[in-house]
Amino acid sequence: MKQVIERALVMGKRNKIVQIIILSVILVVGGYAIGTALLKPSNTAPVVGSTIPDIALQMADGEVKSFNDFEGKALVLNFWGTWCEPCEREMPALQQAWEKWKPEGVEVIGINIGEDKLVVQNYMKKVNVHFPMMLDLKFKARDAFNARGLPATFFVKPDRTVQAIHVGELTTEMLDNYIQQIVNAKR
Q1: 50 and 161 in contact (C-beta within 8 Å)?
Q2: Is the distance from CB of 178 to CB of 166 less than 8 angstroms?
C-alpha cells in the first residue's frame, strides 16, 4: 500500500510539472503570436521605390485633401505628434524646408497622429509653423505607411514613388539633402 501511495504522489508531481510546462509553452507561443500580430507591418506599406497610397485626411484648417491633390509635386510627408520631443525639435527645420523648397514644387506636409484639430492648431501657433498639416485621427495614414516610430518622414517623388524614408529627427542639412534628391528626380 505504501508503494501505491508513493507512486500516486510521484505521478501527481509529474503531472503538475507537465501541466506547468505545457501552460508555459502555451503562454510563450500565445504571447509571441499576439505580439507579432500587433507589431506586424502592413504588407502594403510603402518602401523605397514603391508608390504611396492615396489617402484623404482632414487638414488642420478643416479642408479634406488627399495625396493626389498634390499631383505633380514632390512631397515630404512627416508623421509626428505634439508629445514627441524629437518631432518638436525638427519643426523649425521642416518650416524652413517648406519655405525654401515650395517654389521648386516641393510640399512639406505634416501628418499628426491621432490628435484633435484644436490641439494641432494651438501647437502650430506655439512653434510657429505654417506648412500644411493633415490630421490622422483614425490612424489610417499611420497604418498604411507603417509609421510606428516618430518622427517618420517619407520623401516622395512627383510620380508618387518613395525616394527615401527617414525615421528619427531630421536636421536642416539632412532635409536639404533628401529634398534635393526628389527635386533632381523631377527633372
Answers
A1: yes
A2: yes
* Distances from the Cα of 115 to the Cα of 60, 103, 143, 159, 167, angstroms: 11, 30, 15, 30, 20
What would the grid cell of residue 112 be? Answer: 499628426
pLDDT of 36 higher than 50:
no
Question: Does pLDDT of 178 surpass 60?
Answer: yes
Report pLDDT for 29.
47
**Sequence-distant (≥ 6) Cβ neighbours of residue 130 within 8 angstroms:** 95, 98, 124
Is the distance from CB of 87 to CB of 80 less than 8 angstroms?
yes
Q: What is the CA radius of gyration of the chain?
A: 25
Sequence-ordered list of residues with C-beta below 8 angstroms from that of 3, at least 6 positions apart, any chain: none
Cα 97 to Cα 81, 132, 146, 167, 181: the distances in Å are 19, 12, 24, 17, 14
Q: Is the pTM of this model over 0.85?
A: no
**Confidence bin at 175 (pLDDT 50/70/90):** very high
Cβ atoms of residues 186 and 157 within 8 Å: yes
